[in-house]
Amino acid sequence: MGFAAQYSWTARYDWIRGRRDLVAGLTVAAVSLPQGMAYALIAGVDPRFGVYSAIVVTFVASVFGSSSHLVNGPTSAISLLVFSALAFLDPENSSALFEALFLLAVLVGAFQILIAVFKLGDLTRYISESVIVGFIAAAAFLLAVGQIGNALGVKDKGNGKMQVLHRLWLTLLHGDAINPRALVLSVSAVVLALVFRRVVKRYGLPQVDLLAVLVVAAVIAYAAGWAAPGKGGKTAVTLAAKVPQSLPSPHIPHVDFATLGELSQGALAIAFIGLIEALSIAKAIAHQTQQKVDYNRQILAEGLANITGGFFQSLPGSGSLTRSAINFQAGAATRFSGIIAAAAVSVALLLFAPLLHYVPQAALAGLLLVTAVRLVDYKRLAATVRASRYDAGLVVVTALTGVLVDLDKAVLLGVGLSILLFVPRAAKLKAAELVVTPERVVRERTPDDVVDPAVVIYDLEGELFFGAAPELDRYLDSLRARIRADEVRVVVLRLKRARHPDAVCIERLEHFLREEQARGVVILLAGVQPDTLAVLKNTGFLDWFPPEQIFLEEEAEFSATLKAVRHAHAKLASGELAAARAEEPELGRLYYLV
């Protein structure tokens, strides 16, 4: 969307749209605040960085984005990837951990901006849906497992370098005794979250159920005296870390070149998953609203939001399914609702930051356990696994890698497998011999068809890229043998359904054409598409190949092929081809009088 479109959008803005955006923005803010704190807990960092992300990342993405309803900020999947990316660092060294977090956000933003600048967003299409399903399943499992310790009120044993199931084993069997107070709060949070969500849906109330759960849990802990410091200054249940009563301030992350490579790997995985998450949500909502979303601009906005967040002490973020759906359902009219949501979280932070400290960590853990269960679309998971062995294998490999190794490697492995499995499928080139009936219908040849042996119509269908070169060679060899056996004088090579040719396949084709034309065989190229013609020009193909033997694609199906066949018949009838067969079958002659 250019400047003129942007200007027209602001010129049309009125009080009705403003009121809708205000209501939606405030509703989203009521969810953003507790989610920001909870998702920071998933990432293993201070809650304030999640709240900062709900301000900075949300604001920047709303300003520069294209979707009217997409709300950015911290998400559960991205936070799990952040935890995985930072797992190699010492969690006790909070200063180094936080600096790595901010640098990670900058790297994520940089990767996403590069993807936008070079317009590589379409690469996300080649990441199989099965990989995403497997990733989400692993993320949900890790999210639930990671919060069991907090829900039970015990400190996690081990470190981030250990496998998650090993850490859970140590925590449960060799850790501290279960804190019954924390267990009461986590179970209460789960029950309240389920009850409040049902009430909200039934009566159409504003979706403040998550915030209400934390408020009730904090009141329970305070009323029971569990939030008051006891002996040694410790509280009966662990509370959320204190969040400063101030807005995020600019900060330049420290670059540690020793860890830069490790962080870059995690940043690349976060960048790809973040874009898939954001674009899929934007597409889903745009399908309902009929909005034309500029996806490359949205990718750029995602990158700008994360890179800005990195310089303002924020957790990396992406498009949030929960908050975007709430924004849409609450009636948001424009992207301004996201700006209002960020502003509302800022005001809440300035007014109520001291109170956030009284939120029990066990209550946050309870909410995250509910989030983990809701994260998986079980019907979609079952359908994907049942679809084919290919899909089931990708789901299982991605999910197991995420659980047994780590999530960022699961994403990268899944992407690699998607591409490796996609290339052989894309390289499937189909070739068929066609005939023209007396009714001028072009169709695939059957064994009973009587044809002119001097003319062959050959159709190529598929992607003409390097991966298909062996298949192309095989078909051209078959055609070459046919030419030799039947003394074929004219070949009509139909390329209408041959897509995206590259230099490798054009070279193979050129070699075949030069060889056959040297033997006196005329090759006619029919149905040549504009992109194929451009590649032929760029590779110098048209410098030697006669232009009258190229028949460009036309709107009518097979019209270019019919023209090429008429051209071939005219050459045969005129005697231009010395070896034209005089004994051509009468039925075959009718086939080419078109």
Please provide a written account of the structure.
It is built from 23 helices and eight strands. The protein has helices spanning 3-11, 15-43, 47-64, 76-85, 94-117, 129-146, 148-152, 164-173, 180-203, 209-223, 257-289, 295-310, 321-329, 336-356, 361-375, 378-387, 389-404, 407-426, 469-486, 503-518, 530-538, 559-574, 586-592, and strands at 72-73, 318-319, 430-436, 442-444, 455-463, 490-499, 522-528, 550-552. A six-stranded mixed sheet has the order 4-3-5-6-7-8, with helices on both faces. Strand 5, helix 19 and strand 6 form a beta-alpha-beta unit. Helix 3 (47-64) packs antiparallel against helix 12 and helix 4 packs across helix 6 (129-146).
Count of discrete alpha- or pi-helical segments spanning 4 or more residues: 23
Cα separation of the termini = 49 Å
Unreliable stretches? 1-5, 579-594
Strand percentage: 5-15%
Rg, nearest Å: 31 Å
Shape verdict: elongated
Placed side by side, the strands forming the largest sheet appear as 4-3-5-6-7-8
Q: Which structural class matches the secondary elements?
A: alpha/beta
Helix content bin = 55-70%
Largest beta-sheet characterization: 6 strands, mixed
Average residue-wise pLDDT: 87
By DSSP, the count of extended strands is 8
